[in-house]
Every structure is written in C-alpha cells, then in structure tokens.
Design a protein that fits this description.
Length: 297
C-alpha cells in the first residue's frame, strides 16, 4: 500500500486526474469537505490515505486505507472527505466497473447458486491479493507503453478478486441480466432514460418482470431508496448540471427535468443541495473556475 500511495501522490495533478489506464482515475483532497452530492457510476474505489464518508439513502458508510468501496449500479450519493490535510492529503484510486468484462469473467467461474437481493453498494477490507493487483495496475500509470497489453489482464484480476470478496455475490447477480438484481438494474436504466417523464411504478415493475410489491421491496433493498426517491434525485442532479450552463433560467430547467411546479422544484433542490438553484449554480461555477476537477469515490 505504501508503494501505491507514493506512486499515486507523484501523479496526482489535481482533485481528479485521469490516467493513461482506461477507467482508472486518481482522487486527491487537501482538506476535509462538506457533503458533496453526485451520482456515482458503477465503480471500485480504493482509499490510500485519509478517509471518507458516503451516504446513500439512509445508510452511511466510512472507509479508509484499510477498506474499499464498491457501487455496482448508478446511484445518487453524497460523499464527504473526513480526514485530509495538505501534509497528508486524501488519496484514492477509482476504477469504473466494466460490466461486460465482469460477465466474461463469470463464464470462467463456477456457478454461484446463492440468490442475493441486497444493497448494490458497500465497503470491505482490502485483502493482500487485491492490494497486489492494484499495485501492478497503478505501476502502469508511469508505464503507458505497457497499458495496452498488461492493463486488461490486471484489470481482469482486480475484478476477479472483487467477485471473490464480500461484495461479489451482489455483483454476480447484477452482471447477469436474467437475475433478479439484473431485472432491478434494467428498471434503474429505464428511470434514468425517462427521468423527465411521470413515474409509473407499475410500468417499472413490468420492466423488471415483478409484481409491484416485490419490485418495490427489492428496489429499496438494492438502492436504499424508493423508485420515486431515486427518480427525484436523478432529476435534481440533472437539473444541477444544466443550471451551471444555463444562467438565470431556473424555470426552464425545472420543466425540462419533469417538474410541473417551479416552487416545488426550488424547495426540493434547496433541500438536496443546501442552497437555492440560482445560488448553488453560481457557487458551482465559481468553484469550477478555480478547481475544474470534481471528486468521486
């Protein structure tokens, strides 16, 4: 872990640094932060120094250099760097999960008869085997000529170790389209593709191939929120993104993401992000002018 930390520290160029290795990014934070809402893509995050808290629904998770965080579906979350300083900054590596690669690995693994219906996110301790694979992948940051050949092999090993760990059962199910969790993931995709349309839980249940009661229960087990809460969060995050580029047009953005009342939109936006739409967008533009990178993971 010390070698990975030193290597990442040398190559961190800002709050978020994309590397020559596909899907691999470096995160750095010199100071603790407040809660930063965003939508996490499917990813694996390894903390090398400092610590972080992530809140999803009503669940809060803390992880540090002894653990890693996994999100296997797109999930609205709030993250907060808890332990960081200029002398000992928060350092982490984030690897976007390649579900196609995971599905291919599963073809070479024994079938797992366990049916897992649980959260699509969690933290687990870092094992020596996983840390060694991370080290080999991190070394490629400074060896770009080796990425094309060795990158896919090492990434495959990391995913294999992940599948063998405590989060593996849920990821196995999500990578299999015919599984119950695969059906929930299909419903999540439907919400994201149609976030600006009225939400019909009966239609989502039909997409998932479940009864409404079973679907609602499984959806909350997986995402820690109801379908309506999930759609609301996706709408507000999309509105936030649009507001940054559409100065002073709160009403148009509110209607464009599916709200019928600007008052309701402003109230829910303020509750989600801690400021009115106009004020929050202005603060974001000011932050981005100074620090264009955003931390995830």
């Amino acid at each position: 872990m010390d070698e990975i930390r030193d290597l990442v520290s040398r190559n961190a160029a800002g709050r978020r640094t994309e590397t020559a290795v596909p899907r691999l990014a470096i995160m750095k934070g010199d100071n603790p932060t407040g809660m930063m809402p965003s939508v996490y893509e499917p990813m694996l995050c390894l903390v090398l120094q400092g610590s972080k808290c992530v809140v999803i629904g009503d669940q809060a998770m803390h992880y540090d250099s002894a653990s890693y965080f996994v999100s296997s579906v797109e999930i609205p979350a709030s993250g907060q760097i808890v332990d960081a300083s200029p002398e000992r900054p928060y350092l982490a590596l984030s690897l976007t999960l390649n579900m196609t690669a995971i599905a291919e690995i599963l073809l070479d693994m024994p079938d797992d008869p366990v049916v897992c219906i649980g959260a699509c996110f969690g933290t687990s301790p870092v094992t020596p085997d996983l840390a060694e694979a991370w080290l080999r992948l991190a070394r490629l940051i400074e060896r770009p000529q080796e990425v094309r050949v060795l990158g896919p092999l090492i990434e495959r090993e990391i995913l294999y170790r992940l599948l063998q760990g405590p989060q593996g059962a849920a990821i196995r199910q999500l990578a299999r389209p015919e599984s119950r969790l695969g059906h929930i993931r299909r419903a999540i995709g439907h919400i994201r593709s149609n976030f600006d349309a009225p939400l019909r839980v009966d239609e989502l249940a039909r997409v998932a191939g479940m009864s409404m009661s079973v679907f609602h229960r499984h959806f909350k087990d997986v995402t820690a929120m109801s379908p309506i809460q999930y759609q609301k969060s996706i709408r507000l995050h999309e509105a936030r993104r649009r507001l940054v580029g559409e100065v002073g047009d709160t009403a148009r953005v509110a209607f464009s993401v599916g709200y019928e009342s600007v008052t309701q939109f402003s109230r829910e936006y303020s509750r989600q992000f801690g400021a009115s739409p106009a004020r929050d967008a202005r603060q974001l533009r000011e932050r981005m002018a100074v620090e264009p990178e955003m931390i995830e993971g």
